[in-house]
Task: structure prediction
Amino acid sequence: MTATRVPVVNIIYFALAALVVAVVPWLLPAYISFELAYAGAYAIAILGLLILTGCNGQISLGHGAFMAIGGYGVAIAVTRAGWPPEAAMLVAAVVCAVFGALVGIVALRLSGAYLALATFALAVSVAPLLKRFKDWTGGAQGLTLPTAHAPGPLAGVLDSERWLYYETWLLAGVLFALSWFALQGRLGRALRALRDNEIAAVSFGINPYFYKSLAFAWSAAYAGIAGALIASATAYVSPDTYALQLSITLLIGGVLGGLGSMWGAVIGGLVVEFLPLWTQAISQGASSMIYGISLIVVMIAMPGGIAGAIQRVVHTIIRPRRRGTPERLQS
Amino acid sequence: MTDIRRLVVRATVPIVALAMVAGSFSSVSADAEPGVTPTEVLLGGTHPYSGPASAYGVIGKSIAAYFAYVNDKGGVNGRKITYKDQDDAYNPAQTVQLVKGLVEQDKVFALFNTLGTACNLSIRQYLNDQKIPQLFVSTGATTWGTDYAKYPWTLGFNLDYQAEAIIFGKSIAAHQPNAKIAVLYQNDDFGQDYLTGLKKGLGAKASQIVKAASYEVTDPDVRSQMAALQGSGADTLLIAATPKFAIGAMATLGQLSWKPTTYLTNVSASQTMMAAASKSGGDAATEGIISDFYTMDPTNAELQNTPGIKLYKEILAKYGQGLDPNNGFVLYGMAAAYTMVDALQKAGKDLTREKLMDASLHLTEKNPFLWPGVELTTSPTDHFTIREEQLVKYDKGAWVPTGSILDARK
Amino acid sequence: MRGSGTATTCKRGLQIQELAQQIVSGLATGSIFASLALALVMIYRSMDVINFAQGDMAMFTTFIAWQLMAQGMPLWAAFLLTIVISFVGSVVLERTVIRPIERAPQLTVVIVTLGLLILANGLAGFIWGYEVKSFPSPFPTTPIHVGGAAFSAQDLGVIGVSLGALVVFYLFLARTKLGLAMRAAALYPSESRVLGVPHGWMLALGWGFASVIGTISGLMVAPIVFLEPNMMQGIVVYAFAAAVLGGIDSPVGAVVGGLILGVVLNLLGNYVEFIGTDLRLPVAFAIIVGVLVVRPSGIFGSRKLTRV
Result:
């Protein structure tokens, strides 16, 4: 989405998406709304990765750790201090942002494989730390949260699953819109400039320390919110829920969806949630193999991610005469 | 972009969308009691077929084999059992979603042998709220037995970890009153429960535990921990470890030339595992190790002529293609499946969830797959399904029973 | 507690013995990390990408060796054949699966390697099941006692083979024409193409050699950690850390990093009460990150100088 694109198109897309999101729970069984709620939470986390990795060029293999902070933050606040989950989620997001900023500062001089390992260190540290401080976290047995339910007046209309769905996708909508505006403006330009050529950006007066840490803080906050939503949906947290796999899964979702476009985050969230279920439906015994093959095939066919490929298809349909236009994937 | 690629892209998106919509809509016709028709009863389950705990996936397959056998003999009260078992990769968030799908889309009658402590904890509230039986869960945590008042629809199966360790503790207190005890344990609910149980069994002597060292399942080996345990000067060792690490621990005993009196959890005590340990660490490393069984060990020479093992092998030969008869998990699966069928049988022809739960809580069963003499009993106030075991000692390459069947309650 | 002189010296002796033991087993475990880290470095030097699938590919080939021996093939013949299969298979893999994405963004390649990892793991589980299997060691497992520290010839073997692989790797890249061509293809792709170096095949060879190193790692490690589809997953985590600590493009760094990591883990786990064995992984990683903050390219890694 470069500055020259007409924003009206985006508004139409967004409105269409909002319509679909609003209507879907009434067309499909409740448990699918439940699964879509998870997809929405993953989409939010992947949006964070889009900002950090797609926009700002910093890789992270550790965002599962921020999801853990969000999830456990809510769980501890709800079970041990009786807070309402939404308030806990907000505080968890702030805590994650602070922690993310710290990580960003540590990671300032690192890039590539070195940055990957530094963030990986976060992911592998989650389970041991959670198990050590078991008085707070419930240790290996985890914590059980009360089942999520719609607040007061809505409780009669929305069952638990649909409430979670709307809460998640409403939040996703807000966060996506906010991010879009921020990334269109100066903030987005600074981040992208640092990604494309840090030295040139610095010589233009862009402060790398500030923006790079900001990207980490921002993405961490989103991951924290996603983790909190998942904790509410599962009504249970344990170290196994935030295992190493999770950070890898987020990365897979992000790249598969496409880090060049916000729709990529939505697609990524859907893929992360539903691909394992589909592969199981196809064949119980071969599900891992099908999953692995799917990743390989999709990446070879669509190196820019699914959203990137769809964008190209749309461009060729809508503007068939513009041959020779370099297609840059940017958000 | 080349034309071929464009074609693939254009094709993928609608195919993917269609698959998603199609996959979400396969339903079973609903009856008055979900999951029950005059000819069929539908049970649901989750096991880790992929991921870190995938070694336990065979349990689900073993259950399927047993159900196939029962179905061929006419089923239970005229109904064939269908077991829809899904892969949750040991991730509780995944378990919750799968179980909701099983309950709301597939309309299963009950959940059976869902595996993993955290996974079962994550679905317990939901199933109890919905009043759906969560039967014979595949984990040895004590909470299924102790918290039954709050969660009456949940029922365990395994001899719980604490019970096993309590028996070890009592044995140590009785036979080695001055023992200096070291513990190697897996750092999760399984290992931690063992440590707790050991302390309970030792009672006043719990202070004689001189060192406890934990390991993570991501550790490559346990040599560092074993060296530290040896360095504590202990003369008694409890290995509360899953097979890979237990074998490694026993092998290291040989390497360190350390001969404490060693107690081993039954999870890692099958003949094949002991043979692997002897191979790596020498025969001296495994000689004299004490363990226990509550399900039969399919590789035990003495048990080969029992009706249970004979039945087990017959069933596997006919229905269990690809399953290794020497794998203790496979036999465990069949033992659990036997109990499930027993409960269904006792629930009667007029099958409802309440009746199944009631039948499950009034079991006095002679399960052919349990170690001879071990009994299985439940009551509305006793949700600890199995609490007995047989102590055994490893003598010249085979497990030899020592003493009588012990009950953890006593 | 005041003991007699001999009692305290006795205790001191035991403590030194235990320390020696911890260091020795740390080196042994560390050499396991080192061997896989070498394979990671090899691929990185070819492609600027960490091949996360390296461990599971090694596991898969180790299963092939197991299968060959189960059919009756003697150990050394099976090992040799497996190494050849590993090399050829990996080259084919690169030419079919990696070739289309050679110029794609790095992250795309990373996801493909993750896909390979999942595929290899699932396939191994599908074919051979998840039950833990014994694996014969090419080295004798008889314990050796030196000054109270116990290890086995097997441990020496693993350290020896890792060092040997390092030397061969180094000499190959630095001293042979083929090694030179591979380095050129990785560092100066366009220039070397002009000079007639077939870029694609250099990449394929890089994969092949990395796979061989990985397979050797798997064959040595399987007797210790026991053969099952998930056997390398824990090790990859440490190998990755070791490779980065030592400098992701330095083979010497991979070995040094691995050995250091093995020893540090043991010392942290056993001598720092607060950390214990459960927190030693996070603390070790934190230390590595600390090192990276001071030396952003690892201990022996080459520093990237950007021209403005």
